[in-house]
Design brief:
The structure holds three protein chains of three kinds. Helices cover about 35% and strands about 20% of the residues of chain A. The radius of gyration of chain A is 18 Å and the shape is globular. The relative contact order of chain B is 0.11. Chain B is about 80% helix and about 0% strand. Chain B is built from 13 helices and no strands. Chain B has one domain: MetI-like fold (Orthogonal Bundle), CATH 1.10.3720.10. The longest helix of chain C has about 40 residues. The chains are: A alpha/beta, B mainly alpha, C mainly alpha. Chains B and C meet through helix 2, helix 5, helix 6, helix 7 and helix 9 of B and helix 1, helix 3, helix 6, helix 7 and helix 8 of C.
């Protein structure tokens, strides 16, 4: 379980300056898929960087499975928005995926097996010897997901991972993500600015308002085994989308 | 350069024509010189045939061991020290803002100091042997590598570094697998500049207080008015510079294959990064 | 300058990024101001550390007295030289060769570079010659230059012109080829005559590249001037270093080496400043400011 309590982040030395994240509190249960929805500039990225231990928070408390987060935790993996900048262009796809495993204390044999399995799970089994830049954008993001999966995290943080791919590729990647989420039984915290994407993927959607606190929360009761056509045609989908749209736009919505 | 010369690939005939075009001027220059020098009978500019005759006599392989090899060894030793020192210091200064700021004035001064001015100092410190020559080469060739490494290290993608930290990759591995490869295009740019400087300083240092080497040879021949012999040395140095540069480019192409690939492919989709003149080259001697 | 200078673009981006995170403008400026003072302190500390270390090495005998007098002696000599006219004469001699050399090289290289940069056939014709001449170690020509021109100013100028011609030429070619074809086509469609196209578009676009070429050429020219003075005894700073050394006047030798470094540093700084000014309009700068 990921617990965030009264998280506050202020950049610079002055603690009274305008905060990028203020008084943020929420929890994510094990194996839950939570989407964080917010317009650009509302502190989503700052929040994720605090949660992942990449930057220290100014005050507040973050804990993962009961342990306080002070640096990057060993059972957390991060998928960045800009895949072309988080994959290493001088390594093949296989080496990119296997790279973090070497320093996790996984022996060579097992690392090979984990890499194979992860590449297989994202449908890139035959592409291991390519270089990332020889693949399309969608495939590159699948490599980044494979790298995260091979690391065997208990929680996956994703920062607008599908924001820079085209719509067609995007729905494919969404379904792929739901598939591996179910298969690996991991917790996912997924940041996006796209309402449809949030409703389609999540068990729960948290709406973030600047400076990054939870302005609204919605539980998504759509059945699992979601389908791009059926789920999106569901009347509940339309209702949730409307509610979230209103919540993003401003005033609190009576739920 | 390559971006400009990429000829449209339309059949071999066209390419042959292009090659002919490129070789026309060099051929014309050579023939022109041959005709002129034959007619003019200038003392300083002997005919090409005569120079080549001497060239064969001297450099196949009479003086290879006595002059060419010592020169090359000094140059390579100086160059190797420059590369190791430049990359190591560049990593340190590139990663630490504090050290970089503190070292800046000293580095700026030393890099602006023309290396040959240190020859008298080197002679005092190391004597007239190889040590002083290697020292002078290092003091000239170090800077482009150092400065380009600093720039390269600072230019490493922050997201790659975040990625590495989020996967808890230890510092040594981050340096070896992310920072150094990420900086390598810049490091190679610096090394290319430094190679030319190392050759120049090899020649200069051998022209002062030396008893062998190519620089010594050329100057000695001039002093004894052995003009065709002097020309053979100049030509050999030209060929040497050209060959070493060519070898370097081949190594660079191999090592940075990923870089060309990544840049070439992304250039089609993304807007090409404008190459700022000040950041593309740091060619100060 | 340029340890930080080259990356000013990058640090500007970081600064803007931070302002976007919600820091008020004034606080950023104040933070930067105090940072500048701290940086200055660091730089002074860096220089002092080196100077004190050198002094200690000389006094404690780590570096032999025979060839390394205490730095204080050198400073005294430096002050003496600075107030006597021979030093300035020597600097003048070195710099006149330097200035004539790159001046002539620029006069030759800029028109040829514009021609080769704008004409494909001319470029391909000369490519092999350029590629061959560029990596040739220039100093190999010193003996030839001495033969033809003697040991005076002419020899120095010839060497400098021959060597600095190439970097300037290459930068001009890059610069002219880098002119945005869209801008050029627009100008043509508006009926701008060739002359105006050249002065209004090609030349301003290529200016930063030319400045870079000149900066590179300046450093090389100084090296060559000093080398020519040192190796064959043309009058100037290089020769006076050798004279001081052969008279066993070591403080003077070190003082002159320091002066040579300062001259190089001053030239570098000046050219970098010009280059940065000319670069202000460049798309790379604009893009960074906008992000």
């Amino acid at each position: 379980m990921l617990e965030v309590a009264n998280l506050r982040k202020v950049y610079g030395p002055d603690p009274h300056a305008a905060p990028a994240v203020a008084d943020l509190t929420f929890t994510v249960a094990d194996r839950e898929f939570v989407c964080i929805l917010g317009s650009s500039g509302c502190g989503k990225t700052t929040m994720l960087r605090c949660l992942s231990g990449l930057i220290p928070s100014t005050s507040g408390h973050i804990s993962l499975r009961g342990k306080p987060v002070t640096g990057p935790p060993d059972d957390m993996a991060f998928v960045f928005q800009d895949y072309s900048r988080s994959l290493l262009p001088w390594m093949t796809v296989r080496r990119n995926v296997a790279f973090p495993l070497r320093y996790k204390g996984v022996d060579r044999r097992e690392a090979e097996a984990l890499t194979d399995e992860a590449l297989d799970a994202v449908g890139l089994a035959g592409r291991g010897d390519r270089y990332p830049w020889q693949l399309s954008g969608g495939m590159q993001q699948r490599v980044a997901i494979a790298r995260a999966l091979a690391y065997r995290p208990s929680i996956l943080l994703m920062d607008e991972p599908f924001a820079s791919v085209d719509a067609q590729t995007r729905s494919g990647l969404e379904d792929l993500l739901l598939g591996v989420w179910e298969r690996y039984g991991i917790t996912v915290l997924f940041v996006t600015h796209d309402i449809d994407e949030a409703v389609y993927l999540a068990d729960r959607v948290l709406v973030l308002r600047p400076p990054a606190n939870v302005g609204h929360e919605v539980t998504v009761n759509l059945p699992r085994g979601r389908d791009q056509v059926e789920t999106k045609a569901h009347p509940e989908f339309g209702r949730l989308r409307g509610e979230l749209f209103a919540a993003l736009d401003g005033g609190p919505v009576a739920a | 350069m390559s971006a400009v010369t990429r000829a449209p690939r339309k059949g071999t005939g066209r390419r042959a024509l292009g090659l002919l075009l490129e070789l026309a001027l060099p051929a014309a220059l050579l023939i022109g010189y041959g005709l002129w020098s034959h007619r003019a009978q200038s003392f300083y500019f002997p005919p090409l045939g005569e120079i080549l005759e001497y060239f064969g006599e001297l450099w196949l392989f009479d003086r290879v061991g006595s002059d060419l090899v010592p020169s090359l060894l000094r140059m390579l030793a100086g160059y190797a020290v420059s590369v190791v020192l430049g990359v190591a210091l560049g990593l340190l200064l590139g990663m630490s803002r504090l050290l970089r700021t503190a070292a800046e004035p000293v580095v700026e001064f030393l890099r602006a100091l023309p290396a040959p001015a240190l020859i008298p100092f080197a002679l005092l410190m190391f004597g007239a042997g190889d040590g002083s020559k290697v020292f002078v080469i290092v003091l000239g060739a170090l800077w482009p590598i150092l400065l380009n490494t600093i720039d390269g290290v600072r230019g490493v993608d922050t997201q790659q570094l975040d990625m590495a930290r989020s996967y808890r990759i230890p510092l040594a591995a981050r340096i070896a697998h992310i920072i150094l490869p990420g900086a390598s295009p810049r490091i190679f740019a610096g090394m290319r500049t430094s190679l030319a400087i190392a050759i120049i300083l090899m020649v200069v240092s051998e022209m002062v207080a030396s008893s062998n080497g190519l620089g010594y040879f050329v100057l000695e021949q001039q002093r004894s008015f052995a003009i065709p012999e002097m020309w053979t040395g100049i030509i050999l140095l030209g060929v040497l510079g050209y060959v070493l540069n060519w070898l370097f480019l081949r190594v660079e192409r191999r090592v940075l294959a990923w870089h060309r690939g990544a840049r070439g492919l992304s250039a089609e989709t993304a807007t090409p990064a404008p190459s700022t003149p000040s950041s593309t080259e740091k060619t100060d001697a | 300058m340029s340890l930080e200078g080259v990356q000013t673009v990058g640090s500007a981006r970081r600064r803007t990024a931070r302002t976007a995170d919600g820091l008020p403008e004034g606080r950023v400026r104040r933070a930067l101001g105090s940072r500048r003072i701290r940086d200055l302190g660091l730089k002074v500390t860096g220089v002092l550390t080196v100077l004190v270390a050198l002094e200690l090495c000389a006094r404690l005998g780590v570096l032999s007295r025979d060839w390394f007098p205490p730095m204080t002696d050198t400073y005294v000599e430096l002050a003496k030289l600075a107030f006597g006219h021979p030093l300035w004469t020597e600097i003048g001699r070195t710099l006149s060769g330097w200035a004539l050399g790159i001046g002539l090289a620029a006069l030759l290289a800029i028109p040829i570079g514009v021609l080769l940069g704008s004409n494909r056939t001319a470029y391909r014709l000369s490519r092999v010659v350029i590629e061959f001449c560029r990596p040739v170690p220039s100093v190999a020509l010193i003996p030839l230059a001495v033969l033809v021109y003697g040991v005076g100013l002419e020899m120095k100028v010839f060497l400098i012109v021959f060597v600095t011609f190439w970097p300037i030429l290459l930068q001009v070619i890059y610069g002219v080829q880098d002119v945005d074809p869209l801008v050029y086509d627009t100008a043509r469609s508006y009926g701008l005559p060739p002359r105006a196209r050249f002065f209004r578009i090609t030349l301003p676009s290529a200016a930063p590249y030319i400045a870079t070429g000149l900066r590179i050429a300046s450093a090389i020219a100084l090296v060559l001037a000093v080398t020519a003075e040192l190796v064959v005894g043309a009058p100037g700073l290089g020769q006076s270093i050798v004279v001081a050394q052969s008279n066993a006047n070591l403080p003077r030798m070190y003082a002159l080496i320091i002066v040579t470094g300062l001259v190089g540093w001053a030239l570098n700084t000046a050219f970098q400043a010009i280059e940065r000014r000319l670069l202000r309009w460049h798309p790379s700068q604009r893009a960074e400011v906008a992000s």
